[in-house]
Amino acid sequence: MSCCCCSIIGGLAGFATWIGLLEGPKMGGILFRLDDKGKKVFTPGNIITYIKAPFEYDFFWNEDFLQHNWIAMCAGGMVTGCLVSVFPIN
Questions:
Q1: Cβ pair 33, 41 in contact under 8 A
Q2: Can you tell me the distance from the alpha carbon of 35 to that of 21, in angstroms, rounded to the nearest whole number?
Q3: 15, pLDDT greater than 90
Q4: Rounded CA gap, 66 and 60, in Å?
Q5: Buried b (16+ CB within 10 A) or exposed e, 49-85
Q6: How many CB atoms lie within 10 A of CB 6?
Q7: Which of 69, 57, 61, 60 is nearest to 22 (CA)?
Q8: By the 8 A CB rule, do 77 and 12 touch?
Q9: d(Cα 71, Cα 67) in Å, to the nearest integer?
Q10: Residue 74 vs residues 8, 10, 45, 87: alpha-carbon distances, Å
Q11: pLDDT tens sequence across 19-77
């Protein structure tokens, strides 16, 4: 597989990991929140807020906060995908 294709797959994997971290034990309650009846409901608006956040707040670029930055997660996945295609693990 080419480096370009593996980079795209890696970027998607990085984005999926970022989505998973939004509901992980450290954060939680970002994608699914309790409504006024106590039921867990999907709240897609919160994802949009977090997608815009690295462009609005500088602290999303701090080293300790990069796992919450979707751009950094996608870039890391893209680099990893490209490296795996160039240096395959056998």
A1: yes
A2: 21
A3: yes
A4: 6
A5: ebeeebeeeeebeeeeeeebbbbbbbbbbbebbbebb
A6: 20
A7: 69
A8: yes
A9: 9
A10: 9, 7, 20, 20
A11: 988 888 877 788 888 889 999 999 888 899 999 999 999 999 999 988 889 999 999 99
Residue 5 is classified by DSSP as: H
**Three-state secondary structure readout of 6-74:** HHHHHHHHHHHHHHHHHCCCCCCCCCEEECCCCCEEECHHHHHHHHHHHHHCHHHHCHHHHHHCHHHHH
The position carrying tokens 């890391």 is 76
- Contact predicate 81/13, CB 8 Å: yes
Distance CA 82, CA 68 (A): 22
Q: With the C-alpha atoms ordered 18, 24, 29, 33, is the resulting torsion angle positive or negative?
A: positive
Give dist(CA 30, CA 83) in Å, integer: 32
| DSSP state letter for 87 | S
